[in-house]
């Protein structure tokens, strides 16, 4: 992560890791999650879902910080993230 | 559907009638986001969901209670607030949430809204403002901005729109806020706050309507969200008269009013329920 001034506790704070789950057949392809993901984790996938929309897919594996923004902005309840099971936890 | 590829369960699925999902809202419609913000707020606010009901009138936004896995009521057009009032008076223990659209609450049910706010009924009103009558095909509504095009105003809307927070404040609402669907965190927090407090709480949620309003005004849903991101200012405690929605200059968001006033139930109990000892 890039800082303009490194916070004093930057070494102590543990950034959470998330895993994004996409319920593809609920997606209507609005693209809100792709555009507004703060870590730019998602992209539009080239394949179609059952209803003919392009659901998102994960572009950067491991970049999700489990902020749940995609989960709250998705109008179709089609995406959510859960905390990743890391070795330390 | 017998075969299901995905067995994934969304964290909000316990509050949703999943057999009715996918919902009817168009791709890019903001009502779904307001819906999930409301569900998250209900979950996190810690209110008793067994004693929570949702009421709506007619319209796209008014379909929300139908998708919520709680006791919910889809009433006649514009009559969500009278119905909620009756329910609250019948059983004052209930948390009553009215979730409806701008056309239903402010055009057809405008009169009921002002009287609900005047009496300070202990209900939470969430109004999704998508600037037109979306379900019937994008006609001009009481909230359509001046000069914008709709099915019934192809040359531009000659009327000025309502300023909903000012209307709510002037009628006597004790909690007034406005957010957009892009500000989901603040919106969730605001709904949570409204659910936990007593009194008439009103939250306006700005949402894009790509099919009804956006198509005729060359505004795609992502354009609306970019507009919300670039042109909105958060100004808590601003006077509701100063926050007219001006789509040229910018929009003001925030919690504008948060005051305490005795609710209708409190005053009614004191005034009209005679003390049995005094009647003897």
Structure, explained:
The complex is a heterodimer of chains A (89) and B (280). Chain A has 89 residues and is of the alpha+beta class. Chain A has helices at residues 32-36, 69-73, and strands at residues 18-22, 42-44, 56-58, 79-83. Chain A is built from two helices and four strands, in the order E-H-E-E-H-E. In chain A, the strands form two sheets. Chain A has a two-stranded antiparallel sheet. The two termini of chain A are 21 Å apart. Chain B has 280 residues and is of the alpha/beta class. Chain B has an eight-stranded mixed beta sheet with strand order 2-1-3-4-6-5-8-7, sandwiched between helices. In chain B, 50% of the residues are buried. Chain A binds chain B through residues 21, 23-26, 28-32, 35-36, 51, 53, 69, 71-78, 80, and chain B through 5-6, 8, 10-13, 16, 21-23, 25-33, 35-37, 40, 181-182, 184-185, 188, 221-222, 225.
């Amino acid at each position: 992560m890039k800082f303009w001034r490194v916070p004093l506790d930057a070494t102590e704070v543990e950034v959470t890791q998330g895993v994004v789950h996409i319920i593809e057949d609920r997606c209507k392809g609005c693209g809100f999650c792709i555009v507004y993901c703060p870590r730019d984790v998602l992209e539009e996938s080239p394949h179609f879902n059952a209803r003919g929309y392009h659901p998102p897919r994960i572009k950067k594996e491991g970049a999700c910080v489990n902020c749940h923004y995609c989960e709250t902005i998705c109008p179709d309840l089609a995406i959510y993230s859960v905390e990743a099971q890391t070795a330390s936890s | 559907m017998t075969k299901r590829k995905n067995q994934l369960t969304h964290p909000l699925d316990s509050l949703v009638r999943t057999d009715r999902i996918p919902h009817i809202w168009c791709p890019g419609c903001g009502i779904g986001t307001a819906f999930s913000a409301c569900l998250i707020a209900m979950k996190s606010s810690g209110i008793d969901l067994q004693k929570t009901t949702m009421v709506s009138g007619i319209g796209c936004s008014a379909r929300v209670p139908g998708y919520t896995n709680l006791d919910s009521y889809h009433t006649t057009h514009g009559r969500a607030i009278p119905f909620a009032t009756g329910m609250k008076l019948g059983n004052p223990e209930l948390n009553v949430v009215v979730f409806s659209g701008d056309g239903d609450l402010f055009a057809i049910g405008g009169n009921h809204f002002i009287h609900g706010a005047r009496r300070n009924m202990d209900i939470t009103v969430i109004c999704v403002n998508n600037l037109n009558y979306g379900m019937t095909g994008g006609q001009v509504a009481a909230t359509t901005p001046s000069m914008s095009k709709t099915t019934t105003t192809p040359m531009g809307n000659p009327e000025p729109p309502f300023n909903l927070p000012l209307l709510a404040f002037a009628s006597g609402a004790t909690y007034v806020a406005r957010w957009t669907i892009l500000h989901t965190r603040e919106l969730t927090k605001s709904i949570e706050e409204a659910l936990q407090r007593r009194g008439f709480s009103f939250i306006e949620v700005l949402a894009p309507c790509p099919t009804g309003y956006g198509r005729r005004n060359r505004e795609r849903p992502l354009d609306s969200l970019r507009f919300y991101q670039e042109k909105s200012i958060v100004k808590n405690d601003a006077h509701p008269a100063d926050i007219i929605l001006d789509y040229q200059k910018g929009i003001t968001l925030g919690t504008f009013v948060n005051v305490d006033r005795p609710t209708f139930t409190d005053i009614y109990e004191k005034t009209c329920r005679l003390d049995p000892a005094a009647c003897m």
